[in-house]
């Protein structure tokens, strides 16, 4: 910046620059624009005297025939965010909106006064009935490999991107359809300004679809309904449940066979009617309608089979928790989640605890906000205040950088108790819940808490 200022001063004090002329500065960026009068006789007078502005040299110069050199400059207010120091773009592909592709990128077509350190895309969590914005994917200068978050795996969407000096981009391409009528997604850029202060910018885009036919089907899988039936599932043995399911499957197969025979019979009748010149057109039309109705019944039946299979799968997940070799205390539901605290006190090994959670369909707890923290803290205090209850947050990969074990997402600062994390004796790499989070030494005796969607 100093070299650019020197060049401009030399131009302004050059004898070829005509005296007593001034130029009105025009917009060359999204920042706040200020008019500045250039006086060649000012000598070493500072280029800018307004302390409320920062300078950014524009890319354009032009030479009026009779007024000498006029330089276009833009001045960005100190309070401006990163969104005014650079151009942030959120775009939507032209694919069908049930399978959108979202692109979050930085436009380098003009000069920036901020350093971008991270891009992220937020939106509703996959399969969630709520429209709350949660981080779905991030990419940063520390980790230029795109990182999917909150259940966004390769069965749901492809996450790609690039984070280099000349290209900063994050892309989510959905593989599964989106059935919500209106969904908002947000592109966020984080970084630092010229003074080293943190700044943030975001752009939002709304995806509108015309399909909501499967909302009712998804309601059947709602976890609240599953929770209401836990007592019934515990009372029934797994053998009885399996026998009931097989009985339903046999009934479905019988119905399919019956419909298949009727379908073949109707097809034969339709063919005969078509071959017969004496058959009336009205009779053929009625038989065609009957055939279409049977086909629709078969499709509905196949959908019912799929729903029964999925329902049985969800019930099996809950039953595995009740039959676990390590017993769990189970919470009520909170925003579509349930929480499991191990009943056995043992030396905490984070990898073993994570494997135990995953074996029964969950993962070590990851706290997103203060409401969830309070729910979990109240649930944990009911299990005994004198026992440590460990979470999945740790800084074993990088000292002082606490992240969750499964998602690798950084732990929010507002979740810590006052003065924490303090790394006593430089050995506290795990975390426990004591109202809020404390960092503690791994390997101490205690319990651990899992969560499941």
According to CATH, what is the topology of the largest domain? Immunoglobulin-like
Residue runs with pLDDT of under 50 for 5 or more positions: 1-86, 210-220
Number of strands: 20
Helix content: 25-40%
Tally of separate domains: 4
Protein name: Cd209 antigen
Coiled coil: 277-311
Keywords: Coiled coil, Disulfide bond, Lectin, Secreted, Signal
Main location: secreted
Question: How does this model look, in words?
Answer:
- It is a single chain.
- By secondary structure, this protein is an alpha+beta fold.
- The protein has four domains: 76 residues, no CATH class; 127 residues, Immunoglobulin-like (Sandwich), CATH 2.60.40; 100 residues; 125 residues, Mannose-Binding Protein A, Chain A, CATH 3.10.100.
- The protein is built from nine helices and 20 strands.
- The strands form four sheets. Strands 12, 13, 14, 15, 16, 17, 18, 19 and 20 form a nine-stranded mixed beta sheet that branches. A five-stranded antiparallel beta sheet has the order 7-6-5-10-11.
- Helix 6 runs antiparallel to helix 7.
- The radius of gyration is 32 Å and the shape is flat.
- It starts with a helix and ends with a strand.
Which secondary structure elements does this structure contain, and how are they paired or packed?
Elements: H1 2-13, E1 53-62, E2 70-77, H2 82-85, E3 87-92, E4 101-107, E5 115-123, E6 134-140, E7 147-148, E8 157-163, E9 168-174, E10 182-192, E11 198-208, H3 215-220, H4 223-228, H5 230-235, H6 238-275, H7 281-322, E12 328-330, E13 338-342, E14 346-347, H8 350-359, E15 363-364, H9 370-382, E16 389-394, E17 403-404, E18 430-434, E19 436-440, E20 445-452
Parallel strand pairs: 16-20
Antiparallel strand pairs: 1-2, 3-4, 4-9, 5-6, 5-10, 6-7, 8-9, 10-11, 12-13, 13-20, 14-20, 15-20, 16-17, 16-18, 18-19
């Amino acid at each position: 910046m100093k070299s650019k200022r020197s060049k401009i001063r030399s131009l302004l004090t050059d004898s070829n620059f005509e005296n007593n002329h001034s130029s009105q500065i025009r917009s060359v960026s999204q920042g706040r624009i200020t008019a500045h009068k250039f006086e060649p006789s000012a000598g070493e007078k500072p280029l800018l005297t307004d302390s409320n502005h920062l300078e950014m040299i524009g890319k354009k110069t032009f030479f009026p025939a009779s007024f000498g050199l006029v330089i276009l400059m833009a001045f960005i207010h100190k309070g401006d965010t990163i969104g005014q120091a650079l151009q942030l773009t959120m775009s939507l592909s032209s694919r069908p909106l049930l399978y959108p592709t979202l692109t979050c990128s930085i436009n380098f077509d003009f000069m920036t006064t901020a350093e971008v350190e991270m891009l992220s895309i937020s939106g509703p969590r996959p399969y969630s009935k709520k429209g709350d914005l949660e981080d779905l994917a991030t990419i940063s200068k520390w980790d230029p490999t795109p990182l999917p978050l909150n259940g966004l795996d390769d069965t749901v969407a492809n996450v790609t991107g690039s984070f280099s000096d000349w290209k900063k981009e994050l892309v989510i391409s959905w593989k599964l359809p989106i059935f919500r009528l209106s969904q908002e997604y947000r592109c966020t850029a984080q970084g630092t300004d010229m003074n080293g202060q943190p700044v943030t910018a975001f752009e939002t885009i709304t995806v509108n679809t015309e399909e909501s036919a499967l909302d009712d089907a998804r309601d059947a899988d709602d976890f609240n309904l599953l929770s209401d039936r836990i007592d019934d599932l515990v009372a029934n043995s797994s053998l009885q449940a399996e026998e009931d399911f097989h009985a339903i499957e046999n009934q479905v197969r019988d119905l399919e066979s019956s419909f298949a025979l009727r379908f073949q019979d109707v097809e034969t009748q339709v063919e005969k009617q078509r071959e017969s010149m004496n058959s009336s057109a009205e009779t053929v039309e009625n038989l065609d309608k009957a055939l279409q109705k049977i086909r629709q019944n078969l499709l509905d039946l196949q959908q019912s089979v799929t729903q029964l299979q999925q329902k049985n799968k969800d019930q099996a997940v809950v039953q595995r928790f009740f039959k676990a070799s390590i017993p769990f205390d189970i919470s009520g539901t909170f925003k579509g989640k349930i929480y499991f605290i191990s009943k056995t006190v043992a030396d905490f090994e984070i990898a073993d605890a994570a494997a135990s959670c995953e074996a029964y369909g969950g993962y070590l707890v990851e706290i997103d906000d203060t409401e969830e923290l309070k729910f979990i803290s109240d649930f944990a205090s009911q299990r005994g205040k004198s026992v440590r209850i460990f979470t999945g947050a740790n800084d074993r990969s990088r000292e002082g950088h606490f992240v969750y074990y499964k998602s690798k997402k950084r732990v929010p600062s507002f979740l810590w108790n006052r003065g924490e994390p303090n790394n006593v004796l430089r050995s506290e790499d795990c975390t426990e819940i004591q109202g809020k989070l404390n960092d503690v030494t791994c390997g101490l005796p205690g319990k651990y808490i899992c969560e499941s969607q």
